[in-house]
Amino acid sequence: MQPRPRQAKVIVVMPAYNAARTLVRTYREIPGEVVDHVILVDDVSRDDTVAVAELLQIQVVVHQQNRGYGGNQKTCYDTALAEGAEVVVMLHPDYQYDATRIPALVAPIVSGEADMMLGSRFLGDPLAGGMPRWKYVANRFLTGLENTAFRLDLSEYHTGFRAYSRGLLEQIDYHANSDDFVFDQELVSQVVAAGLRIGEVAVPTRYFAEASSVNFRRSVVYGLGTLRTLGRHRRAVRRQRRADRPAVIKTKPTSTEQGTRTLKG
Fold it and tell me: What is the share, in percent, of the chain residues with pLDDT greater than 90?
């Protein structure tokens, strides 16, 4: 990638599992004028993901056992922070998301306007990009519930194209989250609870045979996990509200006061 004037150090991380067929196309769309470094964390792929990444001269971290989607992201963020990232972009290497949108995704973080950015397929037309209708309906349903629980007005929470500031990743305990797919929603809940700022930009999406996709059964598990996350978030908000209420101090009247009240009665 070509050197550029000093700006925030932007590192792209790719949590990978069997991404050999799409990795080259994904990588070639990453804009070198904005991105300083690319890291791929392989979760024991059964194909040539690692070999392809090494040919592309991507920094590769290989798990010795499968840690799940959330566990993979934990390694991604740990590694990016260790490499000095000031902005971390999480990009699925399945070529579903348009990586040329990275400059627009990171700009609000670099300028200090946002702490977290989401690349939203729903600011455009995901059905035109091939999104299955059942995924569309499920996404709309869960996003509506999340907007209510988080008191936000975002178009999508379920994207594989995100960016975070270094400060956010250092403040949020993402290691406390699930190693499964619900990791993303747990992290959003933490960000909202911390009062950090979330924004979004439109990103085209592509669904095709070689792109990875969560099947219906896994989607149901993910949906239920999201609902549990929202339940925990709402309970935590209620507890915090109760804790923030001003204390009411009640004192018992003295005997003189009691007598006075009796006389006045």
Answer: 74
88/27 Cα distance (integer angstroms):
16
Beta-sheet pairing, 161-165 with 116-120: antiparallel
In a domain, 183, yes or no: yes
Which single residue is written with the structure tokens 């007005």? 153
What phi and psi, each to the nearest 5 degrees, are found at residue 10?
A: -105, 125
- The C-alpha torsion from 224 through 229 and 234 to 237, rounded to 10°, is 180
DSSP-derived letter for residue 248 is P
The helix/strand/coil state of 119 is strand
| DSSP summary character for residue 249 | P
Answer whether residue 248 is part of any domain.
no
Report the alpha-carbon distance of residue 76 to residue 179 in Å, rounded.
13
On average, the pLDDT of the chain sits at: 89
Write the pLDDT tens digit of every residue in 112-158.
999 999 999 999 999 999 999 999 999 999 999 999 999 999 999 99
pTM across the whole model: 0.85
256 found inside a domain = no
Q: What angle do CA 195, 164, 193 make, to 5 degrees?
A: 20
Domain of 55 in residue numbering reads as: 10-242
- Distance, in Å, from the CA atom of 14 to the CA atom of 41, rounded to the nearest integer, reads 6
DSSP structural state of residue 56: T
CB 182 within 8 A of CB 70: yes
Q: Which two tokens stand for residue 17?
A: 């599992």
Domain containing 223 — which CATH number?
3.90.550.10
